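Weekly modeling sync, notes
Attendees: AB, CL, MP (scribe)

Item 1: holo prediction request
CL wants a bound-state model with 5-O-phosphono-beta-D-ribofuranosylamine before deciding which constructs to order. AB pointed out that an apo prediction alone won't tell us much about the pocket. Agreed to run with the ligand included and paste results into these notes for async review.

Input as submitted:
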Amino acid sequence: MRKIVVFASGSGSNFQTLVEKLHGKACEVALLVCDKPGALCLKRAADLNIPTFAFNPKEFASKAEFEQEIIKQIKPIAPALIVLAGYMRIFGPTFLERYEGKIINIHPALLPAFPGKDGIGDALAYGVKIMGVTVHYVDAGIDTGQIIEQACFKRTGSETVEEIREKIHQLEHELYPEVVRELLEAKR
Ligand code: GRF
């Protein structure tokens, strides 16, 4: 069965959905990589029996060094895809030179609008009427890689910010596993 590695930094709700929908069926979720020891995604991984590699970037002299360490962990897995799910770091050349073209990310806005850390907040502040999510390949930029798929909804105008965030997450949980499944099938 083909293997994927998921990267997350925070809550990990997308990671959990990927495991629940795909693990042991479309692929093996072989490892969760996390740059925030103590993050909720690590607890989710433990509950789901998915191996983890957690590291603290501050304990390394440079990005190149911790990326070497991640590569060491991932290499034996030979993942078909590297799936970023709320991983809040930009890769450097050490990692990208090895895996570019295999790394995908999900972003909570309709790229190329509203890249960066707070896509939802930025879209709301702008006052957009249609909101959505984007799955894209990862390159050296911030949410600039080639778009693979998008999904959207129209605001009713009466939702609270919390309800919007919830809708975005729901959309992500539907779209991301489907895109991963399709990419794995296409690359078979
Ligand atoms: C998601 O909204 C995703 O679009 C963004 O980070 C968030 C991660 O959420 N890249 P979760 O940790 O999967 O709940």
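Recorded for review: The pocket of 5-O-phosphono-beta-D-ribofuranosylamine is lined by residues 8, 10-15, 85-86, 106-108, 172 (CB under 6 Å).
Action items: CL to compare against the apo run; MP to circulate these notes.
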